[in-house]
Design a protein that fits this description.
731 residues, Maltoporin, Chain A, 30-stranded antiparallel sheet, 4 helices
Length: 731
Amino acid sequence: MIDILKHRAGRELTVPSMVILCLTMPELTSAQDAAGDGSTVVYPAAYFTEWQPITAGDMLARIPGQDTNGRGSGGGGFGPGSFSGSPSRGGRGLGSGAGSTEILINGKRNAGKNNSTQQMLQRIASSQVQEIQIIRGTSGDLDVRGSGQIINVVLFEELSSTSFAYQGSLNYSQDDAVQLGGTFAVNGQRGALDYTMTLRSQPRYRNSLNNESSILGDFSPNDTVIEEITTDGGNNELSFNLAYAINSNSTVQLNGLFAEREAPTNIDRVTTDLRSNPVAHLVEHEANPNPRDNWEGGFDYEYTFDNGARFKLLGIANQDDNLRTRRRFQLFGNKMKELNLFLNSHSITKELIVRGSYTFDFLEDQSVEVGGERAQTTLNSTLELGLLNAFGKPSAALGGLVPVNLGLANSQVEEIRYEPFAIHNWRLNTKLTLESTLLYETSEINQTGDALNSRGFDFIKPKIDLRYNITPMFQVRGSVERIVNQLSFADFVAANDEQDNDANTLDGNVELRQQTQWRYTLNSEYRLPNDVGVISAELFFADHQDVIDWVDASTSEDNLASVNGNLGHGVEFGANVAASIRMAMIGLPNLLVNSTLSVQDSQVTDPFDGTERRFRNYQRGRFTLTTRHDFPEWRFNWGTQYFDRLDGGMFQYDIRDFEFSVGEPFYGVFAEIRDRRGITYRLDVRQLTDGSQCRERWRYEGRRSDGVLRELEYRCTHGGTQPSLTITGNF
């Protein structure tokens, strides 16, 4: 592997040394090459010259295996390990997830959780990029652990430079609405200071049509529902990233994000009762504001000792303030309206994380990192429900409706978590590396308000990651890891039921425990010679404990209810294959084709009838096919996107009903042209077809396990074609 300390600094690899590197690897500018032991693949800036990229994201989009949708988003995307239909993937804390792709800038990751590094790549001018490194090995010198691969964007060292990037967008929806958006960013360097500041305003507009029909248990007609749902909001945010080299031994990064997000939603609904004679119509309108604000701040300090040891301190604080109000009116023929439902949900989530570590060399070709992490997460949640025909005194705060008492409607939840850890990295030989991790997690969750509860948890979380470079281009890696999933505090409290118009609220569960799993993965990756492409495959198996799904929370047979709870043991297994190929074999070297296939299954015992079935809403698999075809001489490229999940196995099981979901594939196309000034014009057409997503819901009299069908609903959502025009440039 190339000296990772150079990857981290991003400034020690000077222009003369780059010339020497290119002379010693003559094919590097025309094809990717594996450097050193084959764990790192280097793409110097000269590799991208023929495509004349504008941003670092454009450069990453031309690397096989990195572009998945033609946008140059800079993510690993749908490669092996990046897809799972299980809602239980992902561990806690700041460590990277198994099989994920991490993006570093000058060897450092972003000191934040919500401020996206991938978006930063679209703000960095290509002229600032010295090289892009695909790091497939493990090392104690890296900022992240346990990733499938790491993308490190190394910038040139310049005494002074500033670039400005801008983007304007125009989006069109199926109801003929047009929305404008824009982004402006400043990126540069002043001596030891690197900085990026971004202003972004994007529309949050969506129009969809829902059609629902239902029949009764005796197969006679029941009703039809037609809905038009329009969300017309915006996303305005200011973000910044600052990196300052205090001296040759220490650096500090600062990260910030301030965002205002509004998503007010209007719903027009007509319900036709087919059982009445003559047919009766119920006309309703909903006006549902949804203001949401969030901010985040982070810092990352690092000190390198003269012996190469490193001390690192990282902190993140964020807050998300989300207010959702649902107001449903019944409309009458004389245009009068009557409020019959008022539902107000307000939640404030805060998070504070501090992590410190010390990394040092241990014997030859070995390093150890020891440290600890402390996290405090809090949720303050309130829920108010007002109904028209309920018994009691009307409240002006609820629009004149009668308040309804709800359990766990006012709750405060706090978790304090401590996690000491030790990570041992061992380069066994020139081809084999082993990373061993041991973490101990202890936490306490306290809930106050409508429920008083306090619980403590302790977990030991080991992980082993073994990687073997059979050849410089062919790598095999395997890992065994215990994962503790993050709990959603929203499951602890009462909440709005957004999936079922016949049910207003969902109950909470104060006894919910973390879902854990032992996950076993085996990966292989082969990088084809002469920059032809990348082929990879993965097999995985996960043994889950305390699977989170609906469980019985009924107080009586007349008051059946379910909440998110712990089912017990479950398993998950599957395979992912991916290929990213340049079609040089048919004379089209600038045509990049990316394809992935993921197939998986799961099994758990249903708590309501005791049968073996899949996890809730578990996707059986997914197939993707994307293309990008560049015409450098015309400064033009175009491409296609096709995404399709394997339908037929996505279910949701509840105490009184059962749901089955299917959907049409996603088809998209884009075309992009750049003028001589470097301004890029891009036309995207998302969802070329109707893109219907449909759901069947079987409602039962009493318990589902009794098998007495009451009603069968069939509902489809149509999003329509979504064209957009984007203009991007920098100066």
